[in-house]
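User: Please predict the structure of the protein below. I'd like the answer in structure-token form so I can feed it into my own downstream comparison script.

Assistant: Understood. Taking the following sequence of 372 residues as input:
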Amino acid sequence: MARMRRQLLKELFQKGLSSQNSPFLGFRRPVTYMPRPGDGAPRPVTLIPGDGIGPMVTGAVKQVMEAMHAPVYFETYEVHGDMTMVPPEVIDSIKKNKVCLKGGLATPVGGGVSSLNVQLRKELDLYASLVNCFNLPGLPTRHENVDIVVIRENTEGEYAGLEHEVVPGVVESLKVITKFCSERIAQYAFEYAYLNNRKKVTAVHKANIMKLADGLFLESCREIAKKYPGIKYNEIIVDNCCMQLVSKPEQFDVMVTPNLYGNLVANTAAGIAGGTGVMPGGNVGADHAVFEQGASAGNVGNEKLVEQKKANPVALLLSSAMMLRHLQFPSFADRLETAVKRVIEEGKYCTKDLGGTSTTQEVVDAVMDKLD
């Protein structure tokens, strides 16, 4: 009889854990976050609304932060992609606050105008770009079980900006790869994998052609991989990588790449997992971090989106959840992330890129309604 009672209790307990209305759900609560004294003080964050849809989606973040009573406040600066340089006061603000949230900055095509995004990364030594591409429940995609983190070297490679015209009609552009930058991005990728319980790091390269440059990148990745025997390491040529991404993306976990390849791989992965409008990301260095929409394609939108006020705020909302976690406000990050995912899963309020007709404000209102 006693054995039957124990079995019955065991079955009831297991059934209770699987029930949404179960009193046992309380056991799932994580171990409490123990802050240091003063950790709850509001933190200043530099805000760059940017161009195109930028002011709309950063405005969405501000509304949600206010609705949550999140312990952050914004110092706003007007920066636009057609400026010749990032104003010094903006750089000073980010250096002081350590954290920045930004909308997209338009980069003129051609004309010799330098990208302000690249300027920011170099000035603040934001050497690691991270984009998290994953399936969201309720958002139909061709592939399931996609959860890829693309970690891209952010300061050199083709983005070094070392170009000149040798003679009229002949331009030389230098790709710079250094052991120092390759080792530190590899170290960051493996450290990220280790701290986030990821199982595999894949290095993306073209060392079969660029034997010295990409060969140095691979050599650096291999050296760092030896320090993390518990994490599987493999390598893939970038063209094969793109083919594998669109056919079997679930095979990838963490990917570490040089600068240009990372931009292409991250945008491809974002498109596979649901679109650039829902993928969070950021740029981080030893001292500073800038959070923005993860995939760069379409991050300033088009004039029609701005006129109709139908820009998708999800990517920047999820990026701001990453920012809150970075600032050590995990409960606020969880609340925001959960609310956004609930809205996507419900499917009632979606912008055009997700198959709906909602405006930015309607999505924001829905997210605020879902905040616990």
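That's the full token string. Residues 12-26 have pLDDT under 50 and may be disordered.
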